[in-house]
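Acetylglutamate kinase
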Amino acid sequence: MSASESPRPSGADRCGGPAALPKARALVEALPWLARHRGKTVVIKFGGNAMVDDGLKAAFAKDVLFLRHAGLHPVVVHGGGPQISAQLRRLGLESRFEGGLRVTTDETMDVVRMVLAGQVQRELVGLLNEHGPHAVGMTGEDARLMTAVKRYASAGGKPVDIGRVGEVVHVDTGALRALIADGRIPVISSIARPLDDKDAAGGGVFNVNADTAAAALAAALGAEALLILTDVAGLYANWPHADEVIPRLTARELTALLPRLASGMVPKMEGCLYAVTNGVRSARIVDGRVKHSVLLPIFTDEDAGTVVVPDGADGAEGATA
Ligand SMILES: Nc1ncnc2c1ncn2[C@@H]1O[C@H](COP(=O)(O)OP(=O)(O)O)[C@@H](O)[C@H]1O
Ligand SMILES: CC(=O)N[C@@H](CCC(=O)OP(=O)(O)O)C(=O)O
């Protein structure tokens, strides 16, 4: 059939047919959220466990770019625990954790820095920059972004020395804000510069848990939201029974729950609590195994994972990312 003989398409066909309607509806539904979040900063922590699949990584990069093109300012903080452990294994070195924190010798720290800044961060920057000159990688060492003091783990109420593990005590957002203002997407590795010259001797740095780093950055930036992507659907009420995800917690409710939580979730929920008690409007644990899990809580009023809100926040759930 020649073009002149083609039947005249119906109105619906010309618009992509009835199958396209849900797409159009989704776009229209996103409109109020687009207006609401425009110009706001969102810190997204991409956990090492959610980062094991290439398809998920590519989808994550697209989501982050979508946020950027929708006028938000995404800041990515990445993990890499499993990737560090794999590299240590290859080198014949052991991985040991105390209270969810890696025991970090000087030798371990070299591997942590190499894997986080040299491998995981590079890969994410590369994926984001496949679509344009958007992403810039940094560690907490760059422009003194994060300064830390030595952190101890706790066992039976006693402090345990876990080596070169740091607790962020100061964030200098200058370079980060300049990148954001320039429309770039910062991709940050959780390594910090020591406050004390003695810890910094010989170029020493600290290994910071990536959830903790993301929370410190979200608070320092006055972010609208902190999203933590991990490998579970949210915070389960009766762990290890993965039956019921807690949809929403206030800061006070989370404070009461924290002493009963198991290790993987402790730095995440502590980070959420820190963020919402230091100016961030909402902090959410999201299932990073689900493609486009970043977009749903920001652009729809779908319940996703577990959201933590400051005490006294109204019930307007969709208003929180
Ligand atoms: N109450 C809970 N709800 C959900 N997951 C929990 C809970 N308590 C402990 N976990 C564990 O925390 C893990 C997530 O933390 P982690 O392994 O450090 O992930 P990531 O690499 O994303 O930081 C989950 O896979 C789960 O095994
Ligand atoms: C002190 C400490 O434990 N640091 C972490 C840093 C990476 C991290 O936090 O990665 P995930 O988010 O993937 O767990 C580590 O060495 O594994």
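thats it. Residues 1-6 have pLDDT under 50 and may be disordered. DSSP finds eleven helices and 16 strands in the chain. bye
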